[in-house]
């Protein structure tokens, strides 16, 4: 019987359940959760909505008239129903985008870091000798790449909030789980594999049987470690730069600051003073000074960075050119509009939902005269432009979806 | 009446009867907190990507050509003297060998240089299949002891095990790296057209990094008499002479012996070369190593047969990019050309297909 209800309900565009108890509200939500591959959201404002809010994947409580019970049991809460649009189309979307970018980048960074050691294993007798300095390994995730990633996942936006409202279709990638799926993960692993090959074998080949420009050693373990770790850090930083679509001042500061901190730290750690103070902890003395003044070291770093980054740029450019996603198109439109700004659209009038509805509270005395007095109906009706002209939700299965334009009409006053 | 608690305010404020407002939880309307920070929003358009490809191509190709030409102008000569081949002069030395042999084995290899070597010539010894980058090997040293710390001299660190003590006496310098120090002696003789053998002067100073020689490695104690400074220690197991007899010159004796320092700077790869001696240039007229016949005389002390390693001597000039390594030049030329070619391909694709997509309407 339940499945019949669900199947019938899913054939409709909207379903209204009225005169339901709180338990039944929760049961409806659970029914959808159990049998459909969908993420459910429940929004309510009263104590009777609490079980429904708790049953859904995402529970939203509206604070205000009916008290705070809904708010206390919800994941998100705000004061008015209309904020739901902003929650979904702006904040939810940005949050999904940021999380996915962060995850993909984090996996890329760490897999690259680890695969380089894998390749080195072939050349060090598989003795698990690290190709980077131990201090670098400690500080890599903690200091050198922590803040840039943090700024990416805090500030990144693809389009701003106004544009998010103009094109609700931008919400579909989140519903289709496009940004971080098994496929995306496999691509990340392959990308890391390629980067690690470049990051190990280019320095290896460039330094094979080479010496400094005064004839002395440059392919010692310490100089090679310094070269490999600097190449890695520059490559992952540039990759982060490519992933960032919204460069605030904080992003710039954190990215360039982290690179500068890296160079400052290595020059400090490889200095005479640190070595003489704590000899066994800082054995890399002199390495930075002796290898970073060699032109072929810098040329190797340049080659490695370019070779790591260029395929990514080419691939992304081709993808935007030939198979642009909704995201790419909207961003292109944003840029075009910035160049020639459009005529400013009239700001939508605020809906005052609590005043316009024609229901009456029947559970408590005292609200009847609100309805009968017609106080809230004095505002003249304005026509509102339609939000959605035509959208197709991926969840609709049978009929093409369309929405009527809703216009305000004067309600006839109810007779007491 | 309950109607008084009903309020038409929009922003979540709740007015209690009797005046006053409950604390407003609304966050500040600043650009930072409302995520309206001014930002640069780049997108990959043809106007930025295509010129970038062309510019990179145009920069890399000349750099690559410069590197390749420089590398080709470096003169290098390599001679393998392991002696695995029966016809090699060093075959006997490579076969009959043990560390404890007191009588050093010598062999002489003749070779000839087709081209004269100008300017400073650097003489390297190279080893193959020698894993100086093995993890246990790299750990096996005591940097405090090598820095002249007397406590560490008498108590080598645990990392040096099992090369830390020999019959209760501490080993100086301890560890597997020091123990396996390269100890072949190589001499070069020029055979001039008359037939006389002229020994070529080899400089043994200035082969290690300045920071190594002056900061990292120090002899223990301020005592110029190194024999007494190293009192109470013993030489590494595989060495013939103790560390304070490495050289008669006091500046090159003990831990600051440059051959020792060069060996202690472990190589990153299993095939490596280390600077052995420098042949100084004479003047601007005569080449340092003229064309002709030479002999390399080897005092063959270092056994490599057990791990199928190989030994070789390399004579090389250098340039601003170091030794002879054509890889970087070839790589730059290749990457530059691929980049340029890719730029052309992307330009064609953009021309044919690009314009139709950007004017497409966003589907609803």
From TrEMBL, chain A:
**Any one Gene Ontology cellular component term annotated for this protein:** plasma membrane
Q: Which Pfam families does the UniProt record give?
A: Hydrolase_3, PhoLip_ATPase_C
Does the entry feature the keyword Metal-binding, yes or no? yes
Q: Where is this region: Disordered?
A: 382-416
- Work out whether the entry's keyword set contains Signal: no
Residue ranges annotated as compositionally biased, kind Polar residues, are 388-404
Give a GO molecular function annotation for the protein: ATP binding
**What's an example GO BP annotation here?**
phospholipid translocation
Q: What is the first-listed, main subcellular location in coarse terms? A: membrane
Residue ranges with Basic and acidic residues bias: 406-416
- Signal peptide per UniProt: none
Spans through the membrane: 102-123, 135-155, 184-204, 224-242, 254-277, 297-318
Subcellular localization(s) per the UniProt record: Membrane
Which UniProt keywords are listed? Magnesium, Membrane, Metal-binding, Transmembrane, Transmembrane helix
Domain P-type ATPase C-terminal: from-to ranges: 71-325
Tell me where on the tree of life, at the top rank, the source sits. Eukaryota
Alphabetical list of InterPro entries matching this protein: ATPase_P-typ_TM_dom_sf, HAD-like_sf, HAD_sf, P_typ_ATPase, P_typ_ATPase_c
What's the protein's topology in the membrane? Multi-pass membrane protein
Q: What is this protein called?
A: P-type ATPase C-terminal domain-containing protein
Question: Which organism's genome codes for this protein?
Answer: Oncorhynchus mykiss
TrEMBL record, chain B:
* Source organism superkingdom: Eukaryota
Record's subcellular location: Apical cell membrane; Cytoplasmic vesicle, Secretory vesicle membrane; Golgi apparatus; Membrane
Q: How does it sit in the membrane?
A: Multi-pass membrane protein
> Mind telling me which residue stretches traverse the membrane in this protein?
43-69, 327-349
A GO cellular component annotation in the UniProt record: transport vesicle membrane
Q: Which residues form the signal peptide?
A: none
Q: Which family does this protein fall into? A: Belongs to the CDC50/LEM3 family.
The molecule here is called Cell cycle control protein
Q: What is the lineage of its organism?
A: Eukaryota, Metazoa, Chordata, Craniata, Vertebrata
């Amino acid at each position: 019987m339940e499945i019949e209800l669900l199947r019938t309900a899913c054939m409709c565009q909207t379903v209204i359940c009225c005169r339901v108890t709180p338990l039944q509200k929760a049961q409806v939500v659970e029914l959808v959760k159990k049998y459909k591959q969908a993420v459910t959201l429940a929004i309510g404002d009263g104590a009777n909505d609490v079980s429904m809010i708790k049953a859904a994947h995402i529970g939203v409580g509206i604070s205000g008239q009916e008290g705070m019970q809904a708010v206390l049991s919800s994941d998100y809460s705000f004061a008015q129903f209309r904020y739901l649009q902003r929650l979904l189309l702006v904040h939810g979307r940005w949050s999904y985008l940021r999380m996915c970018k962060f995850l993909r980048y984090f996996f890329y960074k760490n897999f690259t870091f680890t695969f380089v050691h894998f390749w080195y294993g072939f050349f060090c007798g598989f003795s698990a000798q690290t190709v980077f300095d131990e201090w670098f390994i400690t500080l890599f995730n903690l200091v050198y790449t922590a803040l840039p990633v943090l700024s990416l996942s805090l500030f990144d936006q693809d389009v701003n909030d106004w544009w998010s409202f103009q094109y609700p279709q931008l919400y579909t990638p989140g519903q289709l789980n496009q940004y971080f799926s098994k496929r995306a993960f496999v691509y990340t692993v392959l990308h890391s594999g390629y980067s690690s090959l470049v990051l190990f074998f280019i320095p290896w080949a460039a330094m094979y049987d080479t010496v400094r420009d005064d004839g002395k050693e440059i392919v010692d373990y310490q100089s090679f470690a310094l070269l490999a770790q600097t190449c890695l850090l520059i490559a992952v930083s540039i990759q982060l730069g490519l992933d960032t679509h919204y460069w605030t001042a904080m992003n710039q500061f954190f990215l360039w600051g982290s690179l500068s901190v890296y160079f400052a730290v290595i020059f400090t750690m490889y200095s005479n003073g640190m070595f003489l103070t704590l000899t066994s902890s800082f054995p890399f003395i002199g390495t930075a000074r002796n290898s970073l003044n060699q032109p072929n070291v810098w040329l190797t770093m340049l080659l490695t960075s370019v070779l790591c980054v260029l395929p990514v740029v080419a691939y992304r450019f081709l993808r935007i050119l030939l198979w642009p996603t909704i995201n790419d198109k909207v961003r292109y439109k944003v840029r075009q509009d910035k160049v020639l700004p459009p005529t400013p659209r009239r700001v939508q009038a605020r809906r005052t939902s609590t005043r316009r509805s024609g229901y009456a509270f029947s559970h408590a005395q005292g609200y009847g005269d609100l309805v009968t007095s017609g106080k809230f109906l004095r505002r003249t009706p304005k026509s509102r432009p339609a939000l959605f002209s035509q959208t197709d939700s991926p969840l609709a299965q049978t009929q093409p979806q369309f929405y009527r334009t809703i216009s305000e009409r004067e309600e006839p006053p109810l007779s007491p | 009446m309950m109607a008084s608690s009903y309020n038409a305010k929009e922003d979540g404020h709740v007015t209690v009867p009797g005046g006053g407002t409950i604390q407003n939880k609304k966050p500040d309307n600043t650009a930072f907190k409302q995520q309206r920070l001014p930002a640069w929003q780049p997108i990959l358009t043809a106007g930025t990507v295509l010129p970038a490809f062309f510019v990179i191509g145009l920069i890399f190709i000349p750099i690559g050509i410069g590197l390749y030409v420089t590398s080709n102008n470096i003169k290098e000569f390599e001679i393998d003297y392991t002696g695995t081949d029966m016809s090699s002069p060093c075959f006997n030395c490579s076969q009959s060998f043990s560390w404890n042999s007191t009588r050093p084995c010598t062999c002489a290899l003749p070779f000839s240089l087709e081209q004269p070597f100008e300017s400073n010539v650097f003489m390297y010894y190279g080893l193959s299949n020698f894993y100086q980058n093995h993890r246990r090997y790299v750990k096996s040293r005591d940097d405090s002891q090598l820095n002249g710390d007397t406590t560490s001299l008498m108590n080598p660190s645990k990392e040096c095990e099992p090369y830390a003590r020999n019959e209760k006496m501490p080993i100086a310098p301890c560890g597997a790296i020091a123990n396996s120090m390269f100890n072949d002696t190589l001499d070069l003789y020029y055979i001039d057209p008359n037939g006389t053998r002229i020994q070529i002067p080899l400089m043994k100073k200035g082969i290690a990094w300045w920071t190594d020689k002056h900061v990292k490695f120090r002899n223990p104690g301020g005592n110029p008499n190194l024999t007494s400074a190293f009192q109470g220690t013993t030489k590494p197991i595989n060495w013939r002479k103790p560390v304070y007899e490495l050289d008669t010159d006091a500046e090159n004796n003990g831990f600051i012996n440059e051959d020792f320092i060069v060996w202690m700077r472990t190589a990153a790869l299993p095939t490596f070369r280390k600077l052995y001696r420098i042949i100084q240039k004479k003047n601007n007229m005569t080449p340092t190593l003229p064309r002709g016949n030479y002999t390399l005389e080897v005092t063959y002390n270092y056994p490599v047969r057990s791990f199928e390693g190989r030994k070789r001597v390399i004579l090389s000039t250098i340039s601003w990019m170091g030794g002879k390594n054509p890889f970087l030049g070839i790589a730059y030329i290749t990457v530059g050309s691929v980049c340029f070619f890719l730029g052309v391909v992307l330009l064609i694709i953009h021309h044919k297909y690009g314009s139709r997509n950007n004017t497409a309407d966003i589907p609803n």
